[in-house]
Amino acid sequence: MKTSTDWSWHFRAWQAGARWDSTRAWVHDWLMSQPTAHDTLILMGGSAGWMMSPRFLERFATVVLIDIDPWAGRLFKWRHGKALASGPTSLQFVCGDAHTLLEEALAQHPRACLLFDNFLGLDTLHTRDLQRTAERLRAIRRKLRGRLWGSLHDRFSGPGTRDWARAACWQLGRLQATSGQPLAKALYESVQARGEWLDHGTDVIFEPGTSVRMIPWPLIPGRWHWLEAGWAQV
């Protein structure tokens, strides 16, 4: 297993500052919709928690962070140490591939809530194969049956020209999980999409009919990500 730290990503996230504030606020609102009757949160691929809600973390006695970045634990504590201490919430960091460690984490924490934090949408970047990604994501869904879990992930991404305020209005409505062109077309038009857009192959993560929220994320000026966020039905 090769671990790595993407310092360019951490610098970009730190530098984004206020530009990501609206996205963080919507992520916080979605996170807080999760029931509170769990002592432990398994956070898969949480990195430094750049989009994480401190108030959400305070709900748990223990947060188990699993990430391939060897610096993730220290950066996460730097970002959210105050919230963890006020809980008080203990942070356990496991460095490794979240895909490989998923079953072990589930066995060690049978009553924990599990959250994939902006992680599953990256699978196509590794497999370079939408069919392979779909198989991997469906397998994860099967492993999580009977457990409370959620995911925030990329659904689509690409260049767009519409200003933030107008595109942000799309988040105010809660959309039902769907697939195919109707949703994609509407989201592309909302940001005046230009050029080539990437379908991250994440339409298979949730069961059909799961209620999700679509959250716009201006990753860098002129480039948009549409995040899909949902809690699986138990």
Report on the structure:
By secondary structure, the chain is of the alpha/beta class. It has a domain at 1-117: 3-Layer(aba) Sandwich (Rossmann fold). The protein has helices at residues 7-16, 21-31, 54-57, 72-86, 98-108, 123-127, 130-143, 164-168, 181-190, and strands at 40-44, 62-67, 90-95, 113-117, 149-159, 175-176, 198-199, 211-220, 223-231. Strands 1, 2, 3, 4, 5, 6, 7, 8 and 9 form a nine-stranded mixed sheet that branches. The longest helix has 15 residues, at 72-86. The model is unreliable at 169-181 (pLDDT under 50).
Shape: globular
CATH architecture of the domain at 1-117: 3-Layer(aba) Sandwich
Spans of at least 5 consecutive residues with low confidence: 169-181
**Fraction of residues in β-strands:** 15-25%
Task: Provide a concise account of the structure shown.
By secondary structure, this protein is α/β, with parallel strands linked by helices.
